[in-house]
Amino acid sequence: MNLNKVMLIGNLTRNPETRTTPTGQTVCSFGLATNRRYNDAQGNKQDQAEFHNLVAWGRLAEICGQYLVKGKKIYAEGRLQTRKWTAQDGSEKQRTEIVLEGMQMLDRAGAGGSASTAARAAEPSFPAANPEPGVPDTAEEGIKVEEIPF
């Protein structure tokens, strides 16, 4: 048995970019920064930032594109995936990304980032984009702000 699981809490480094593939799939990509504080050999506190590339698909991509903005703190859960391609100049490129399976916004309404009024109106938690077989996908029904209990 193998395991490919990533769990991060951090802040968005850029606004999400949402687009549609030629087959009609929605995809959203954005950056996330996580920070680590430690003491160096001399006992001085040091901060180290790590930057991650995140990608969401389907309904989760639509939600990320609608509610997330640069600076917002989120909990992200997913799996690592490395893509390889040939650039237009003929060079080989590769990029390691976290493919999101779930996301939860952690800022309170009105806190963190420069969110628009509409994005601040609700701070719901969103389930995984692809539920297990046989389990209905309730995320496809749509989320109405007035139905969110907080």
If you had to describe this structure to a student in words, what would you say it looks like?
This protein is mostly beta strands and 150 residues long. It has helices at 58-67, 117-120, and strands at residues 6-12, 17-20, 26-39, 45-57, 73-86, 92-105, 125-126. It has a single domain (6-147), classed as OB fold (Dihydrolipoamide Acetyltransferase, E2P) (Beta Barrel). 9% of the residues lie in helices and 45% in strands. A five-stranded mixed beta barrel has the order 1-3-4-6-5. Strand 2 (17-20) and strand 3 (26-39) form a beta hairpin. The longest helix has 10 residues, at 58-67. The termini are far apart.
Estimated helix fraction? under 10%
Please, what is the average pLDDT? 81
E-strand count: 7
Run of helices and strands? EEEEHEEHE
CATH superfamily: Nucleic acid-binding proteins
Domain count: 1
Overall 3D form: globular
Number of helices: 2
> Based on helices, strands and strand pairing, what is the structural class?
mainly beta
How are strands sequenced across the largest beta sheet? 1-3-4-6-5
- Terminal Cα separation, in Å? 40 Å
- Rg over CA atoms: 17 Å
CATH architecture: Beta Barrel
How would the blueprint of this fold be written?
Elements: E1 6-12, E2 17-20, E3 26-39, E4 45-57, H1 58-67, E5 73-86, E6 92-105, H2 117-120, E7 125-126
Parallel strand pairs: 4-6
Antiparallel strand pairs: 1-3, 1-5, 2-3, 3-4, 5-6, 6-7
Please describe the structure with a list of short key phrases separated by commas or semicolons:
150 residues, mainly beta, OB fold (Dihydrolipoamide Acetyltransferase, E2P), five-stranded mixed beta barrel, 9% helix
